[in-house]
């Protein structure tokens, strides 16, 4: 009898311990992220809009759209030209970004200014994960207000990402640039296409990182920033501010853009358009004809030999110094 009781109580104790550990993990809050050290380094408003490279081999992620905004996916190699400081460069390789795994950081604004649209934004972001992620892709989920929270690190698990998007409350101010900076740092050493998607009204209020520093970090990481800006008035809104022009500038200077949506159906359509665009990007690579290792800024211009198209790419890079 004594032996059976000991075994029974041992099993109960183990079961209780496992249950407590599971409950503790399930209830664990998202990780609040501090800013990394040395966030203050920067090169100024104009210079920060471009990417730092460490060799003479330069890769420029490029999106080409029609006048109506539809991605153009059937361009031939001979239709591209790249100029560096006005000098035509010999393109070494043109790749399709769809061939590379995606490394995506989703940043969801949970500040007080989006309170009446938060549930809608959550559902749209989760639907985007379901639509775009392939088995080889990885995505991370961040939420931000006056602080930045890592809800889920890079994963291929849709259930984990869906769980990360639940149970959020809108409150506090908006550290938009801090969130972008932190996400860019996380993606820096990841292979494949690095993309940051921000779902926000674009209003920054309390960031310690400047817009210029955030741009510099995104480009140094060789990432592209897209914004989904739901300018949606609800019955509870007394005032709906316009999106911050700095948000649009920030996205465009990294080679991305902002999708403005004014209804629930438009938000879903905006995510669908972004999905299509991510699959249609081109990666243009060349060896710079300028062999000077002077650390100076070099301007890049990508041209396409097809009339009526819109080309978006980084505006330049910094030369290596050694």
Spell out the blueprint of helices and strands.
Blueprint: H1 2-26, E1 31-33, E2 51-52, E3 57-65, E4 80-84, E5 87-89, E6 91-96, E7 102-109, H2 118-132, E8 138-144, E9 148-155, H3 158-164, H4 176-187, E10 193-199, H5 211-220, E11 223-230, H6 245-253, E12 258-261, H7 264-279, E13 282-287, E14 297-304, E15 310-312, E16 316-318
Parallel strand pairs: 2-16, 7-8, 7-10, 10-11, 11-12
Antiparallel strand pairs: 1-9, 3-13, 3-15, 4-5, 4-14, 6-13, 8-9, 14-16
Features of the shown structure:
seven-stranded mixed beta sheet; 29% helix; 28% strand
CATH level-1 class of the largest domain: Alpha Beta
SSE topology string: HEEEEEEEHEEHHEHEHEHEEEE
Percentage of residues in helical conformation: 25-40%
Major sheet: arrangement of strands: 1-9-8-7-10-11-12
Question: Mind summarizing the main beta sheet?
Answer: 7 strands, mixed
Cα-atom radius of gyration: 23 Å
Strand content: 25-35%
CATH-derived architecture of the largest domain: 3-Layer(aba) Sandwich
* SS-derived structural category: alpha/beta
Mean pLDDT across the residues is: 79
**How many strands in all?**
16
Q: How does the overall form come out from the CA principal axes?
A: globular
């Amino acid at each position: 009898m004594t032996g059976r009781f000991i075994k029974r109580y041992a099993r109960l104790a183990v079961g209780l311990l496992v249950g407590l550990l599971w409950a503790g993990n399930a209830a664990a809050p998202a990780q609040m992220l501090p800013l990394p050290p040395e966030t203050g380094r920067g090169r100024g408003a104009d210079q920060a809009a471009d990417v730092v490279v460490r060799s003479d081999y330069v890769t420029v992620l490029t999106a080409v759209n029609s006048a109506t905004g539809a991605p153009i996916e059937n361009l031939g190699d001979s239709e591209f030209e790249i100029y560096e400081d006005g000098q035509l460069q010999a393109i070494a390789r043109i790749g399709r970004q769809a061939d590379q795994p995606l490394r995506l950081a989703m940043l969801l604004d949970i500040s007080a200014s989006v309170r009446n649209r938060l549930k809608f934004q959550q559902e749209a972001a989760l639907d985007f994960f379901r639509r775009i992620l392939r088995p080889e892709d990885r995505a991370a989920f961040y939420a931000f207000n006056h602080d930045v929270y890592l809800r889920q690190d890079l994963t291929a698990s849709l259930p984990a990402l869906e769980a990360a998007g639940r149970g959020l409350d809108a409150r506090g101010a908006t550290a938009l640039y801090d969130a972008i900076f932190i996400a860019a740092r996380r993606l820096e050493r990841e292979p494949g296409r690095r993309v940051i998607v921000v779902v926000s009204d674009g209003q920054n209020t309390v960031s310690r990182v400047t817009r210029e520093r955030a741009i510099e970090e995104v480009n140094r990481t060789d990432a592209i920033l897209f914004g989904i800006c739901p300018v949606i008035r609800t019955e509870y809104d007394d005032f709906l501010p316009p999106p911050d022009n700095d948000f649009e500038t920030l996205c465009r200077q990294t080679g991305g853009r902002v999708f403005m949506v004014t209804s629930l159906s438009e938000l879903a359509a905006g995510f669908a358009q972004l999905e299509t665009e991510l699959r249609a990007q081109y990666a243009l690579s060349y060896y710079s004809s300028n062999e000077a290792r002077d650390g100076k800024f070099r301007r890049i211009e990508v041209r396409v030999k097809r009339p009526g198209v819109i080309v978006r790419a980084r505006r330049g890079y910094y030369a290596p110094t050694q």
